[in-house]
Amino acid sequence: MKPSRKIPLNALRAFEATARLMSFTKAGEELGMTQTAISYQIRLLEDQLGEPLFLRRPRHLALSDAGAKLHPKIAQAFALIDEAVAGVETQSRSALVIHTNATFASRWLAAHIGTFQLEHPEIAVRLELSNDLVDFSASDADVAIRAGRGQWPGLTSHFVMKGHFTPMLSPALAATIGGVHEPADLLKLRIIDPGDPWWRMWFTAAGLPDADLDSRARSRMGAQVFEAAAAIAGQGVGILNPDFYADDVALGRLIQPFDLIEDSGYHYWFVYPESRANVPKIRAFRAFMRKAMPSFRD
């Protein structure tokens, strides 16, 4: 017998249906094939195996010893395949996997995803959090919110919001030096993550290109949302995207001492594979983003 990997799957499917229904005609009707095609596939399988699988008698079909031995295992194998495919189809229809970073997830998605699920109770949502760019071909992710310039081969990109930044701090911390009145006043305070290139860009735009940042103790927190939490707690001055923290400013937890806002050139984008643009759950979330995010652009 030749290795099983050489046996056509169609021939095995034709054999399983015929053995279960004990009829070439009924097997053909189930599989959408003619009786002749079913008979041909089974002959092909018998030739490959070197054994007859059926005893063909007038108006009667029976399994041979080889066929009776083979059928339960083939039936089990197809049952496992059907179960696996059904599981993937169910997940594909009902679970939306969103890949994004911790800052966008906590500062925007957390406040809006409940509304999406109320509008679409049939769609479960799962978040994958990482600063890395997701590889859709190697991940369960359906869509992603990522920072960049919006051009990735094979992906459709929609602009979500600007990736700009400015210093922000707690009013209590500002009060310790009598208030922050000019950019140089910030240098009297602890800078959260002075190694962040945004700081150098902002101080240069503010007229202080030689601001001493290199000699300061480094503290890298891994996500802007953690830096913002430290700033709210009075632990230092954070360089933050003000669009994420308007509520904290309104509630008096943070202040934005200067109108100067710099643009990183890396904005937030809603992305997904071009080939999946019309998947219902992706289409539903895209429509929701368009409605819920005023800056959303196609």
From TrEMBL:
It comes from Paracoccus aminophilus JCM 7686. The keyword Transcription applies. Transmembrane segments: none annotated. One of its GO terms (biological process) is DNA-templated transcription. Belongs to the LysR transcriptional regulatory family. InterPro entries: LysR-type_TF_proteobact-type, LysR_HTH_N, LysR_subst-bd, WH-like_DNA-bd_sf, WH_DNA-bd_sf. This is Transcriptional regulator, LysR family. Keywords: DNA-binding, Transcription, Transcription regulation. Gene3D superfamilies: Periplasmic binding protein-like II, Winged helix-like DNA-binding domain superfamily/Winged helix DNA-binding domain. GO terms for molecular function: DNA-binding transcription factor activity; sequence-specific DNA binding. The keyword Disulfide bond does not apply. Residues 7-64 form the HTH lysR-type domain. It comes from the Bacteria.
